[in-house]
Amino acid sequence: MARRPVRRDGIRSGRMSEPVPRLTRAALARAGEPLEAAPARIVHLGVGAFHRAHQAWYTSRAPDAADWGIAAFTARTDAVARRLAPQDGVYTLVERGPEADRFEHIGSIVEVHPATRTDRLRELVAAPSTAVATLTITEAGYHLRPDGVLDLADVEIAHDVEALRGGRFDALLTPLARLLLGLADRRTDGVEPIAIVSCDNLPDNGARLAAALAVLASETGRTGALQAASFVNTSVDRITPRTTEADLEAIAEATGWRDEAPAVTEPFADWTLSGEFPSGHPAWDAAGARFVGDIRAHTQRKLLVLNGGHLVLAFEGLRRGLATVADAIADRDCRRALERFWDEAARTVGSPDTDAYRAALEERFANRRIEHPLAQIAVDTVTKLSLRVLPVIRAERAAGRDAAGSTAVVAAWAACRTAGLLPGERSDRGEFDRALDTLLEGADPRDGEAIVAAVTPPG
Ligand SMILES: NC(=O)c1ccc[n+]([C@@H]2O[C@H](COP(=O)([O-])OP(=O)(O)OC[C@H]3O[C@@H](n4cnc5c(N)ncnc54)[C@H](O)[C@@H]3O)[C@@H](O)[C@H]2O)c1
Ligand SMILES: O=P(O)(O)OC[C@@H](O)[C@@H](O)[C@H](O)[C@H](O)CO
What is the pTM of this model? Predict the structure, then answer.
């Protein structure tokens, strides 16, 4: 980063008298910081903050970055495209440590499109030059039932099944349907398979995506499409809260560039991948990622200990009127609830390195400069509880223990939900009962009574 005033150490350099220019590839080149656009060989769906802090960052750090550009699509609204496209995909990544910020311009995203550009997505997924498609579309974006199968009764999926059957491709609503179209074209053209890399916080994320696409394909007469893809399971880790307007101002002040689409993240990053890449991939391993044979234990540890732990802090913290993860872990009662859950989650994971992971996580959660709102975590809560807490209840009870720490998370969820503290989730009795029924559908029937008891006030 050459433009003045630039401070990589997080010390702000004072207000500038000159107007702050907009970050673009051309403006960077003029300022002596050229970031060449690589050919687009990766397609990404869901260009949110996490993609910019994780996969796009790893790609920018790979030694062969000059060969691997990303064509990024939003997954739902066009908000990020409106901010990032005028910057030619270039943005600032702020690595926010406990003491200071580090600023870096990332140039690996070379095309930015709104989700509705199905035509371009289709063309890119089918193109022989495209080797990889990555996704960060949130857990809700997979439209799975509590048993993990694609929910054909879901309104958006039902809509897209009809649209695919009727050839109304411009009307598609879901990333899954758009991706399927591209794969069908790739298959028709006989192109080498593409690797599809789910980077969402789901266990067996690649396998679940493959199964969901298989259902969609069979419902719409495109069963051959899946032969054009290999599905990769991943575990992804880097705490990346939503960017705020205050972040934009601080970045302009610190770097001298106006950036409408930065991402703010913690220094820690992990990316573990398992699967085949028939058409190749960037040297992400040289940038710190790990390719492994069996990913299950790794994924389970991350989802239960980190994401399950986040849920504990979110529900316990929101009940107490707290705002962020750092606030909650500093609260004695929240901390106690977290430790009780972690003791049980560690037994469920059963791997010896969980203690070290947990100790490191305490520091990551306590980083006060990362303002991770509890309200951002506490969304889509039934799905998250099913995947991150119910497995702990199951394992504890199967071992003859009372699962008090993990059932307490369900009790805290119920308290938040009925008190109207969960954003976007209705608190009336009927809605709560429906949510509880859905949660129970995803639970082992042997745990039903314990879960119901946890959410039922005594007396
Ligand atoms: N932020 C993190 O700390 C983090 C860390 C690890 C993994 N992840 C994974 O990445 C996902 C995205 O995180 P983010 O911080 O980028 O979120 P974000 O809100 O910034 O972006 C999410 C993207 O998903 C889209 N989306 C949201 N709901 C959708 C739905 N129902 N259907 C289709 N698309 C939908 C949004 O439009 C957006 O493009 C998370 O849900 C999680 O699975 C995030
Ligand atoms: O992103 P979600 O919605 O799956 O869960 C919220 C957070 O727990 C999550 O985003 C973590 O910050 C992340 O998984 C850290 O790697």
Answer: 0.95
Please tell me the distance between residue 152's alpha carbon and the centre of ligand 1 in angstroms.
22
Structural domain harbouring 422: 297-455
Chain centroid to Cα 225, Å, comes to 25
Nearest CA to ligand 1 atom 1: 240
Which residues form the pocket of ligand 1, taking CB atoms under 6 Å from any ligand atom? 46-51, 74-77, 136-141, 175, 200-201, 236, 238-240
Q: Are residues 381 and 416 both part of a single domain?
A: yes
| Core vs surface per residue 306-335: b (16+ CB within 10 A) or e | bbbbbbbbbbbbbbeebebbbbbbebeebb
Residues 36 and 136 in one domain: yes
List, for residues 57-116, the tens digit of each pLDDT value: 999 999 999 999 999 999 999 999 999 999 999 999 999 999 999 999 999 999 999 999
In a domain, 8, yes or no: no
Residue 259 inside a domain? The answer is yes
Dist CA 390 CA 409 (whole Å): 10
CA of 34 to the centre of ligand 2 (A): 33
Same domain (yes/no): 312, 171: no
Q: Looking at the structure, do residues 272 and 301 belong to the same domain, yes or no?
A: no
